[in-house]
Amino acid sequence: MTGEPARVRQMWHLLEPLHAVLYYAPGAFEEAAVLGYDTEERWSSYFAWRAAPLGAVGAAEVVRTFHSFAPAMVDGYVPGIWATAAPDAVLAARLRAVDRAYRALFGDRVEGPEFAEAAALARRAAEAARGPQGAGAAPGGQVSDGMGPANSALPWPETPHLALWQAATVLREHRGDGHVAALTEAGLDPVESLVSFAAVGAARPEVFASRGWRTEEWGAARQRLQERGLLAADGTATDAGRELRAKVELRTDEEAAAPWRALGEPGRERLAELLGEPWLEVIGSGMLPAENTLGIGKV
Predict the structure, then answer these.
(1) Is 263's pLDDT higher than 50?
(2) Please, which of 23, 37, 74, 293 could form a disulfide with 32 given CB 3.0 to 4.6 Å?
(3) What is d(CA 4, CA 253) in angstroms, rounded to the nearest whole number?
(4) Is 54 exposed, middle or buried (0-12, 13-18, 19+ CB in 10 A)?
């Protein structure tokens, strides 16, 4: 992959780990426990942290916007998570969680000029990712048009390192909304999206088990994709299947490009430079799983 799609994908790869610390940092689990969430496993806090910008929505909206999770799995957490803590409280706690995670990872550098510069550049890009006027929802408000607009509607933190995290979050959710649109255009339902992604080697099928699909649901999706000529009998992608997934990824990069065009190439290059060391530190911390459902490093 070359040209603009490659540059857009590079920025996603750099920003995604800076966002994802929320779901894995020890301090984040401690903040979740204070709210009252079960931290023996990560899903109750995950759904709360990620869905809070949507407001106190029900399971159907989380299934729609998150896309890859089995409805039965989502039903086990939503809307029950809002009985534990309201979205406003969750949003405040997730910023505290990120503050703790970033200070543990980066120390006093979060107060330094490089974090401030990175935050300013990332915020400029993120502000260009806003959806249509009026999209999104304040916590507790109406259903949003997607995860990107819902996060764009939130107020910006004053401290640079938290603004950097929020910008990373807006940009990755904006990209995610575009990815869901690209999958829909390709005629791939949520479980087919995962099956086809595993088929091109993005991750082992076992990794995608975290999304809660039953064995029979996964098998039925494989059958449907085989009937479309997208999957071979052994579960690997056919040439047509690889071509379709390549089109999906290219379409996703195209949908995610506007913020980086708005920032401009000098700004994008400078942000990439500034993110390099923090990215290495997050990856080197061992906090994040080495194999992930996003296919980072594989596709």
Answers:
(1) yes
(2) 37
(3) 8
(4) buried
CA angle 292, 101, 288 (to 5 degrees): 15
Running DSSP on this structure, what letter comes out for residue 279? Answer: H
Q: Which residues contact 176 (CB under 8 A, 6 or more apart)?
A: 67, 147, 148
* Environment class of 241 (CB within 10 Å of its CB; exposed 0-12, middle 13-18, buried 19+): buried
Q: What is the crossing angle of helices 87-106 and 43-51, to 10°? A: 110
Please tell me the predicted confidence (pLDDT) of residue 294.
60
**pLDDT, tens digit, 9 for 90 and up, residues 124-153:** 999 999 643 333 333 334 345 899 999 999
Position 62, amino acid: V
Q: What is the rounded CA–CA span in Å between residue 255 and residue 178?
A: 5
What predicted TM-score, i.e. pTM, was given to this entire model? 0.92
Is pLDDT at 79 greater than 50 in this prediction?
yes
Cβ contacts of residue 14 below 8 Å, gap of 6+?
272, 275, 276, 279
Rounded to whole angstroms, the Cα distance separating 14 from 6 reads: 12
In terms of DSSP H, where are the helices of 80-143? 80-84, 87-106, 113-127
